[in-house]
Design a protein that fits this description.
- By secondary structure, the protein is an alpha+beta fold.
- The strands form 7 sheets. Strands 1, 4, 5, 6, 7, 8, 9, 10 and 11 form a 9-stranded mixed beta sheet that branches. Strands 12, 13, 14, 15, 16, 17, 25, 26 and 29 form a 9-stranded mixed beta sheet that branches. Strands 2-3-19-24-18 form a 5-stranded mixed beta sheet, covered by helices on one side.
- A hairpin with a 5-residue loop joins strand 13 and strand 14 (about 240-245).
- Helix 2 runs antiparallel to helix 4 and helix 12 (about 420-430) packs across helix 18 (about 585-595).
- It starts with a helix and ends with a helix.
- The structure holds oxalic acid and manganese (II) ion.
- Oxalic acid binds next to loops.
Length: about 600
């Protein structure tokens, strides 16, 4: 498919190590993908679902010990240890290559090596980047063909240049103790072995588009962020775009595909989805910030997705979708997951491949009793999304008016606040945090700092990463987007959520955009600018079937200084752990916060 000598010699080298029986280049054609689908069904790797109800859809189950990203086995292998920073696992590159070479050697024997040329971003556009993934898994090929732009046109766009990310994946024997997801940012290389779960093996996603890309972004003056991108259309037809970072499992896909409440729809408001997980952001020719979604599909969490929480995502999964680790309803050969509806199938196979008894479901032990694994997924093509932005394929991306950071905080963070300026906004993002829920760990309320929601995804030193954010702000000057923080997860003393969330988050988005346009005033507080209660529209709003009142909003917008003082101490510990590469400007921001709270 190519004469590119860099590509060919790298593949030869990898072939000599993994020793496949044959090599197949993925050309991106439907005919080839169809053959692979048929082969995967023949071997049992995938199950074809009901063609009438779910046309073109398949079910796949991973090994039971291989169902999520493995942060403790994910490494950034820079030559100098300090360049990886304190929140990444580090291994010396030479040592890592040697260690993994042993695991890879002969691991493709009896198998086919699939060569997947893929583009992150519109093929051939200025801001796109190319990767080649070698894999022994048809499941990986078919997922990559949904999540990225794959095929011959990509290799043609590469021409004879050496600018591609080299990704090697081997399922090997899927052993947990030998599972490694390793990144060599200085070599443009990713090595993943002993896993077949999406987040570890779809190398275009977290590995390239966040870890390697964040490293490249710093070098080249742009940013790779764990952010959704959405456009809010106003009744006059104007569309304003925001990008928003939330830690994993905080509802990014739901926010990205939000459907405004009826009263807003009737007035002509609409939300358009550009991306649900990753944004590549750079300064455009007019000096403003522009964002693209480098992906071509959604790898969304299935449980909890339903007609109320995210009808657009549900619609997106109705054709040409690959479901992973969800339940299999044998009565009609469809899929089911917890939270889809109130009709658990009576004749079903669970995510482990065992007969499932819906009467034994126990919320406190989801992993063992649920039909679908809590981290089960759908891989769906962006083009099937009913609210996909017409700008999705725009090579320039969309201009960003506001940046939003969000965490899961029961008490501390108010519903929404605005940072005083860019540097303060970088401070707010740098200390982003979520509290663990009982369901996740057993320990309630443990704060995990997740800077810019990038904790598991920064491909270099976190202190340098913050420095890069500050520098971008300096370059943007007065064209910088405004930065906000939201918290949809504030609770009362009984642990009930105070804010209805989902479509009603539109009300908060509108305040944010009104602030960006200088159309609404705000009150300055210790932590930043907060809305006046009158300025968040609560017309027709209900929470849990009860009318939502201004008093409730008052509570959601209150700042408990004692809790914030505690938080400031926690931030100090976090900043201290980062060491001397933490920019002085952020220490100053922390001092300002502390003074304000005195
Ligand atoms: C994801 C994640 O899968 O953030 O998007 O874990
Ligand atoms: Mn994510």
């Amino acid at each position: 498919m190519t004469n590119n000598k860099y590509v060919l010699s790298w593949i030869d080298e990898m072939k000599a190590m993994v020793q496949p029986d044959k090599v197949v280049w993925i050309d991106g054609s439907e005919a080839q993908l169809d053959e692979l689908r048929a082969e995967a069904c023949k071997t049992g790797e995938m199950i074809k679902l009901n063609e009438e109800k779910l046309p073109g859809c398949y079910l796949h189950r991973t090994a039971v010990n291989d169902v999520a990203r493995v942060e403790d086995r994910t490494f950034i292998c820079t030559r100098k240890k300090e360049d990886a920073g304190n929140i990444n696992n580090w291994m010396d590159p030479a040592e890592c290559y040697a260690k993994l070479t042993k695991l890879y050697t002969g691991s493709y024997k009896g198998k086919t090596m699939y060569v997947i040329p893929y583009s992150m971003g519109v093929v051939g556009s200025d801001f796109a980047k190319i990767g080649i993934e070698l894999t022994d898994s048809i499941y990986v090929v078919l997922n990559m063909a949904i999540m990225t732009r794959v095929g011959k046109n990509v290799i043609d766009a590469l021409g004879d240049k050496p600018d591609f990310v080299k990704g090697l994946h081997a399922t090997a024997d899927c052993s947990q103790e030998n599972r490694y997801i390793c990144h060599f940012p200085e070599d443009n290389t990713i090595w993943s072995v002993n896993s077949a779960y999406g987040g570890n093996v779809l190398l275009g996603k977290k590995c390239f588009a966040l870890r390697i890309a964040s490293y490249l972004g710093r070098k080249e003056g742009w940013m790779a962020e764990h952010m959704l991108i959405l456009g809010v259309e106003f009744p006059n037809g104007d569309i304003k775009y925001v990008s928003a970072a939330f830690p994993s499992a905080c509802g990014k896909t739901n926010l990205a595909m939000l459907i405004p409440p009826e009263i807003y729809r009737n007035k002509g408001y609409k939300v358009w989805t550009v991306g649900d997980d990753i944004a590549w952001i750079r300064i455009g020719e007019d000096g403003r910030l522009y964002a693209i979604n480098p992906e071509n599909g959604f790898f969304g969490v299935a449980p909890g997705t339903n007609e109320h929480s995210n009808p657009n995502a549900l619609a997106t999964t109705k054709k040409d979708c690959i479901f992973t680790n969800v339940g299999h309803n044998l009565d009609d050969n469809t899929v089911w997951w917890e939270g889809l509806d109130n009709n658990p199938p009576k004749n079903a196979i669970n995510w482990k491949g065992e007969k499932w008894d819906y009467t034994k479901y126990n919320k406190a032990d989801k992993v063992n009793t649920s039909c679908a694994h809590p981290n089960s997924r759908f891989t769906a093509s962006a083009k099937n999304c009913p609210c996909l932005s017409p700008m999705f394929n725009s090579p320039e991306g969309v201009p960003v008016t506001a940046i939003i950071f969000g965490g899961r905080r029961a008490k501390t963070a108010p519903l929404v606040y605005q940072s005083r300026d860019w540097a303060h906004g970088v401070f707010v993002g740098s200390v982003l945090a979520s509290e663990t829920t009982a369901a996740a760990t057993g320990a309630v309320g443990v704060v995990r700092r997740d800077p810019m929601a990038m904790r598991p995804f920064i491909g270099y030193h976190v202190g340098d990463y913050f420095g890069h954010w500050l520098e971008m702000g300096e370059k943007l000057g007065d064209k910088a987007p405004k930065i906000f923080h939201v918290n949809w997860f504030r609770t009362d003393d009984e642990g009930n959520f105070l804010w209805p969330g989902f479509g009603d988050n539109m009300r908060v988005l509108l305040w944010i955009l009104a602030r960006c346009e200088g159309k609404v005033s705000a009150r300055e507080t210790e932590i930043g600018y907060l809305p006046y209660v009158k300025d968040i529209d609560i017309e027709g709003l209900e929470n849990d079937g009860k009318e939502f009142t201004h008093m409730m909003l008052d509570e959601l917008l209150s700042v408990d200084k004692a809790l914030w003082r505690e938080d400031a101490e926690n931030i100090e510990g976090f900043y201290t752990s980062i060491g001397e590469r933490l920019p002085a400007k952020l220490w100053e921001e922390l001092e300002t916060l502390k003074k304000n709270l005195e």
